[in-house]
Amino acid sequence: MQLLERQASLEVLQQSARDLRAGQGRVVLVSGEAGLGKTSLLESFASTHRGRERVLWGRCDPLFTPSPLAPFQEIAAQMGGRLSALPDDQAGSTVVFSRLLQELHRAGPAIYVIEDLHWADEATLDAIKFLGRRIQAVEALLIVSYRDDELDQNHSLRNLLAVLATCRTVRRVPLAPLSVESVRQLIQQERFDPEIVHRKTGGNPFLVTELLVSGEADRVPPTVRDIVLQRAARLPKAARNVLEVAAVIGPRSDARLLRRIVGDDADLTDACMGVGLLRAEGETLVLRHELTRQAVLESIAPPRRAVLHSQVLEALLELGTASASLLAHHAEAAGDAEAVRTHAPIAAKLARSVGSHREAADQLARALRYTGSNRPEERANLLEALAEECALLDRQGDAADTRRQAVHLWRELDNPRKEGSNLAALAWPLVRSGLNAEADVCSLRAIAILERLGPSRELAAALRMQAHLRMLDRDKDSAMAWGRKAIAMAEAVGDLETLASAHLAVGAAMLVTDDLRGRTYLNRCISLAREHGFDGLVALAYLNIGSSYGEQYRFTEAERILKVGMAYAFERDLDHALHYIQAWLALTYLYQGRWTDAADLALEVLQAPELAVVSRIMALVALGRVRARRGDPGVWPALDEALDLAQRTGTLQRLAPVRAARAEAAWLGGSPERARTEAEAVWDLALAHRHPWHVGEFAFWRRRAGSEVRSPSWIARPFLLELDGDWQDAATAWAERACPYERARSLAEGDEVACREALTLFDRLGASPAAAALRQRLRSEGIGRVPRGPRAATRSNLLGLTPRQAEILLLLREGLTNAAIARRLHISTKTVDHHVSAVLAKLGVSSRLEVAKLEASPQPTILGGVAKYGDIGRPE
């Protein structure tokens, strides 16, 4: 078939190949619906490079549950088997992916093509994410194709595409249907009407070609199924059987496997190729198109289809070369319960070993469907394993339900050790779902059961979970007591992972209450975790240190630790920890007066796929407070969502930051009554926990709103000074904490000189509501020559834009697309979308074209404030 309307796409691929020869690795994403010619495009491109660079191919298969790293295994075979050790159930995904990167580096310049990524397993998607972030330093061009019309909102591939959107090494090649003119060129026969053909096929090259081959000029079949079955009908019965077996085997059929099933009839494959339904690739037979295979499969009666799957399963077992996931696929399709129970758990174990947690969960769910109540112990073990996978996937509701079932079965089996272990594990998905009270009940029940059985790893883990719950509730003494019990038990039974995590719980409980001795425990956790390869615990330790410092307003130290943790989590693709670290870093930037950085980072977090609730709450708090302090729109939608999520937890850790942000937003919005209500909402809870910073801030807002508040003497010193009216020392205390906005707020309570200094700080920060309120007050008090703030001319030039929005405006005037702007500014496309919408709204225009027509303001006028004031004093 002619390659029409694909020159621009080929040029992107060729430019990427030129980059490869220059030593720069690239990832190219080729997308389009089935039949648009993705394979034809890639084959045309590859044909121009054979003899110059190695071109290696891998494919993803449409199995019910995909095989882990299947396309990389296929590529490995072409590389001489260097990657044949993948996957390795003894190695974690980071080790496997690092090994893969090393092998690509050693292989030298090469082009790697992976087709049909929409069928990929989670490990393959994670591997491509891993490579996409690091491929620039490798002489490799990785081209992947996928069907973009088959991705629903929950498809795993969407997560990968969202992550790769921010990688500068990634290029996209979306394929569009052919135009009527191109269809006319393909037809070149007067008896076909190009307009009708185009309308019937939607310009899909595959469907157009199938239509032409069918010769049905007067009746265009509505679907490819009719075309395929019409061709299949021309075959003799034995050849149709060969075709059906090939379709059941999969998109590609090994000749040995096919012959083992159909015997001498395998010679009839020539007939199938003669009608264009099969083609040969060496010893492999390939159906012309996946749509062809689906049409053949649907034409087979279900009972016969099950028989054919059974025959394929038997042949695969005899050959001994199939993966457990492939065997489980055919076993389920054949309705062979025993085979499913045999192969699906093995497939799950292998999938988990390389980080394919979705595939592991699917395999375990498959096994459970064929494991009835007459096998209670086997079923309980499967439920236990499935709960683990669901928790890792952040499917906390499913994880909790599955754990409950496991608890019930182990209780019926009179196995208290297993019952207690699963009760303790149940606490985790419950607390992640905001059901803290229920989590606590389960944790204490687990401990009561396990303590009767004596020291054990299960009891150590249960004690550690209770310590963690108490730490989350900011109950220091209780958390330390439980944590020390867990440490002693873990040491006694030799459970190093629980030992490290118990140190984390104790250290975090201490540090978050400003007891710096907690660092000793946290450092011990990091040391143990690094020594024994518990990467997730290392990231969690950095996360807890940084967020604890942040909660104690030690923002300089918080920033340093959070950035170390962010680099660690990013390097190991620990996205759950990474997102929470980023959310707290956004809060740190907020208090440091770096409001543009805070808002941008918070938006990045909120746009992340599969974001945990705890990360979302903290990012929403950062975004809501920035918007409130700048007087931007969108304050209450962010803070309302944050409150809805935080209320589910019932914990001070989540409720206090949200209520404090809402109290400030209400005050700045001119609603003191609402501010008082927000500040009083968790006042008693904060007092009960003797949290000096939360109590201090709530006392501050209650006093501002007109309440008579008797402040405890133990509240945080800057708030205590403010409440005592000592504005000078309060301003100094806030300066020592690197909090310029709070410093200006204290100065605004002082004499005229201090108020003028406060006004300057507010203006530099872009704190419009606070600055406007202070100007009004000064004028009402008769103070003359109150600075007007940013001049009208300056505001006109700035158009009310933040520095980042001003940058976006300049790039819009250059005619750059959102994707190009994202690459220029090193931020995600979604963040650019948000900024562009804000710019259009502030300019009062509805399109980018109208932006281009506006008279451009000089760049120094728009961006000059950034250079003048730096990070802390940006005029927002």
TrEMBL record:
A Pfam family annotated for this UniProt entry: AAA_16
Keyword annotations of the record: ATP-binding, Nucleotide-binding
All residue ranges annotated as the HTH luxR-type domain in the record: 794-859
InterPro entries: AAA_16, P-loop_NTPase, Sig_transdc_resp-reg_C-effctor, TPR-like_helical_dom_sf, Tscrpt_reg_LuxR_C, WH-like_DNA-bd_sf
SUPFAM superfamilies linked to this entry: C-terminal effector domain of the bipartite response regulators, P-loop containing nucleoside triphosphate hydrolases, TPR-like
Domain of life: Bacteria
Protein's name according to its UniProt entry: AAA family ATPase
Protein's organism: Microvirga arabica
